Amino acid sequence: MSAIGHSAAKRVVLDGCSLTCKVLSQLGALGAQISIEPGAMERIKGARAVVDNLVQRGFDEGHVAYGINTGFGLFADVIIPNNQLAKLQANLIRSHSAGVGEPLTPSETRRLLALRLNVLAKGHSGIRAETVEQMVAAFNANCLSVVPSKGTVGASGDLAPLSHLALGLMGEGLMWDPDAPGQHAPAKEVGWLVGWLDWRVGWRVS
What we know:
39% of the residues lie in helices and 10% in strands. It has seven helices and six strands; from the N terminus they run E-H-E-H-H-E-H-H-E-H-E-E-H.
């Protein structure tokens, strides 16, 4: 269950199941904090173990897993060598960061990040627990990527915004400057507050 304050969401524990629209709205406010429920974190680690097992054992035996050691879409039959897997994930983020228009407000971006973390808390993605922890730290430090309000890639409708959300946390693109409200700054000058998402040591990070 989400831990909710009486008048505002000061501290919310995300478990992937119980986040409500009301609490999500409150999470847009500066000062609201989030954490991941311990059981949800165990699910995240369990799903990650499946991915690590594929990489460490299965791929050496010639097995493939879509989007982990293959290309995407029309390139699904292209096998990516193990030493290029992290680069594959980073390049996917970069290629989909193609949004345009006015950026989402910091409050809207906070809600977007909280929504993504709530989905990841379900434990189905294969993301590293350390990456989730860095994303939580970014939310709590108000360390937010600049996300254009228009543009998408694919049928799901959210790949471009989510790519921009991750791009800043990789140290690329723009972020909102926590020291100058309403102003942008290069991500490399802001993200040091919480540390970069490290795509170099993982696969299937999104």
